Amino acid sequence: MANNQKSIYSALAANLLIAITKFIAGAFTNSSSMISEGIHSTVDTTNQLLLLYGLKRSRKPADQYHPFGYGKELYFWSFVVSILIFGLGGALSIFQGVVHIREPELMKDPIWNYVVLVLSLIFEGTSLFIAVKAFNKTRNGAGWWDAIIKSKDPSSFLVVFEDGAAVAGLIIVMILMGLSHALHIPELDGLASVIVGLLLVFVSFILARESRSLLMGEGIAPETRQKIAELAEKDAAVLKVKNILSTYQSPEEVVLMLIIDFEDHLDTEEITGAIERIRENIKKEFQLVRFVLIQPE
Question: Which residues span the membrane (predicted)?
């Protein structure tokens, strides 16, 4: 998770500086798309702060009110981030663009816009590179989409999506703003805002889907369940593992429950001893499994 925090901090620093310069450039040149890009960077800055807050909250130790800890705080704040991208990023950019299309205004000298966009592209590109590098370390050879679906740490792929959308948005704005100025069609500047907004809405839906799934309680992979069942059934006291239930409390913590059919001739003391053996073997083999509950059938 340390690598993910590094990518979050790099994105936070980049977006904070970029947001300020975009708003200044947009105000001086009367560019709708630059104002939208400023909104985008401001939302991204807020998102990184919320992710860092979620990471901090998720590390709180368990207490009497939350016996399994606060790991799901990260999933909650990741879902909040996806809503902010939709509402403050996407919706506001679309609104700003529509207003500029309906009431177009000629752009003033856009030279500062280009300077800001090029610098932003460098900063966002660097942040994206760091985020992709950190995410690649967690993929373990899996494809990008499969890695996102299977990932239990939204902070790993959320920054990648944000920075990727930012780089794509900057390229769109540069192209349409240039055409708007060259062809004297101010509506194209507003169109750039709308496209950037739609891009953010699309990204927010993907992030909301994944964060919601994690928040509701994703379990371990089928192949991992099979390995755990085989490990438990190696114990001489076990007749069969009837069912395995699991949920991720955090990216680094799994709660596991096994319903096991033990040999009929065993007494209570022998079953208790078998449960302890099975619990210790599972926790030794699978480092993320912190809680193992075993129910005799």
Answer: 7-28, 74-99, 111-135, 156-179, 191-208
List Cα–Cα distances, 81 to 12, 99, 112, 158, in angstroms.
Answer: 14, 26, 30, 9
Confidence class for position 260, pLDDT limits 50, 70, 90: very high
pTM: 0.76
The total number of structural domains that make up the chain:
2
List the helix and strand counts (H, then E) for the chain. Answer: 10, 3
Instruction: Verify that 241 and 191 share a domain, yes or no.
Output: no
Q: Which residues pair with 257 in a beta bridge?
A: 245, 293
> For residue range 82-91, what is the model confidence (pLDDT) as tens digits?
888 877 778 8
Encode pLDDT of 165-219 as tens digits: 888 888 888 888 888 878 888 888 788 888 888 988 888 888 888 888 888 888 8
Residues 103 and 172 in one domain: yes
Same domain? 176 vs 278? no
CATH assignment of the domain containing 123? 1.20.1510.10
Of 165, 189, 216, which one is at a domain's C-terminal end? 216
Based on the fold, state whether residues 211 and 228 are members of the same structural domain. no
Q: Are 159 and 167 in contact (CB under 8 A)?
A: no
d(CA 205, CA 39): 19
Picking from 53, 47, 25, 28, the residue whose alpha carbon sits closest to that of residue 37 is 25
Angle between helices 111-139 and 154-183 (to 10 degrees): 160
Strands 238-250, 289-296: pairing kind: unpaired
Query: Strand locations in the chain, DSSP E?
Result: 238-250, 253-262, 289-296
Count of other CB atoms within 10 angstroms of residue 38? 24
